[in-house]
Amino acid sequence: MTNLTEKQKSLLDELLKDFDGDAESLLGKNGLMMQLKKRAVETMLEGEITDHLGYEPSDSAGNGSGNSRNGRTGKTVQSKDGPFEISVPRDRNSSFDPQVIRKGQRRMDGIDDVIVSFYARGLSTREIQAELKELYGADVSPTLISNVTNTVLDEVKAWQARPLDEVYPIIYFDCLFVKSREDGTIVNKAVYLALGINMDGEKELLGLWLSNTEGAKFWLTVFNELKTRGLNDCFIACVDGLKGLPEAIEAVYPHTRVQLCIVHQVRNSLKYVSWKDRKKVASGLRAIYTAPTPDAARTSLDSFADQWGEQYPAIVPSWERNWERLIPFFDYPPAIRKVVYTTNAIESLNYSMRKVIKGRGAFPNDDAIRKLLYLGLQNASKKWTMPIRDWKAALNQFIILYGDRVPV
Fold first, then answer.
1. Closest listed residue to residue 306, CA positions, set 316, 294, 296
2. Do 204 and 377 meet the contact criterion of CB atoms below 8 Å apart?
3. pLDDT score, position 226
4. What is the spatial distance between Cα 209 and Cα 197, in angstroms, rounded to a whole number?
5. What is the mean pLDDT of residues 199-223?
6. Which residues contact 401 (CB under 8 A, 6 or more apart)?
7. pLDDT by residue (tens digit) across 51-101?
């Protein structure tokens, strides 16, 4: 909050020294503070038209000037404190363009911030209308709410095209699904997110992309975009079996290691297992990914196959197919293994986004998806105040492992 000057404090003290009313008469809809706001706005408007015309009211300097005051027009303005009436001065030539409250403007800027804040929390247009009415007594139309939130789209475009750092040691990729209207039908759309860990160990969302399908061709466009925006290198890409992603990232970033999420691999394996065997099977799988070396992990997988392969025939072939992209984390010391063996970092972000879109039904178009998720992501990122755990140790290991690829 801005500190008041001594002169401002004295003015407020003078204003309130003889006030003996209750809170409603001071802060209520028609209270003293609302009247003060009304008077302040009208005083600024008077100053603006005086500056526009070049002379004070009733000043003879205005005679023959070619323009003059021409009464006032009443106007209702919405604000965070509720609606209030003001009188806007006019001039005969209709050339006066006030700046405090512009022509056609029906709300103070603060209420736009409130609308955007409500929208970012996942409230629907109807819910925003109800909140504004209850909290501020403001009647706003669905069109106004849509127009206010649409101003975010330019910000989204600038954010999506912003320059990136040259190197992100780790990037996580994941997706969530939303419903959208397309050509009169409701379809499921995938929203892909890329979460980078920069050289300071801080999380940074690199972008979001919408697509009806996934595959190498789609992912090539994503990685080429990241390359164009300045991202030249990534040491490890952590993914959850997204179709075509490993091939695409290896085409654009051939030196990047692709690590499939171990947690997802285990989770997908356990869906085949009966409840009574889950603990035993989970223990057998744990022996694989907690092994000290890839060879030891391979031995544990063979032992698991001997014990459970016949009873649950889908599990071992799945690990076999993905083996080369499940074991890269074994090449790293514990400080890095903890960071890269799972995509939990981005999954927790997706969980926050699912809460934002929960109960919304189908979005009318792609722009509606982008602006809501962008605002939700900005809110979520406010919690990223610290580097990820054990980052200093991981960074020192990266310097040893990757040498010149680590920027000084």
1. 316
2. no
3. 95
4. 19
5. 87
6. 235, 332
7. 788 888 877 777 777 888 888 888 877 765 667 777 888 888 888 887 667
Angle, helix 366-381 to helix 152-160, in steps of 10 degrees: 70
List Cα–Cα distances, 313 to 67, 240, 317, 319, in angstroms.
90, 22, 7, 11
- Tokens at residue 214, please? 């996934």
Question: Cα separations (Å) of 107 from 39, 102, 130?
Answer: 16, 10, 17
Closest C-alpha to 196, from 248, 233, 247, 148? 233
User: CA angle at residue 309 from 305 to 310, to 5 degrees?
Assistant: 145
Eight-state DSSP code of residue 166 = S
Do residues 162 and 226 lie in contact, with contact meaning Cβ atoms separated by under 8 Å? no
pLDDT in tens, 55-67: 888 777 777 778 8
Give rounded-to-5 percent helix, strand, coil for the chain.
Answer: 50, 15, 30
Q: How much is the pTM?
A: 0.68
| CA 110 from centroid of its chain's CA atoms | 20
The number of residues making up the chain comes to 408
**CA-to-CA distance for 217 and 294, rounded, in angstroms?**
32
What SS3 string covers 121-138?
CCCCHHHHHHHHHHHHCC
The continuous run of DSSP H or E covering 180 comes out as strand 167-182
Q: What is the amino acid identity at position 239? A: V
Six-digit token string for 361: 């039904």
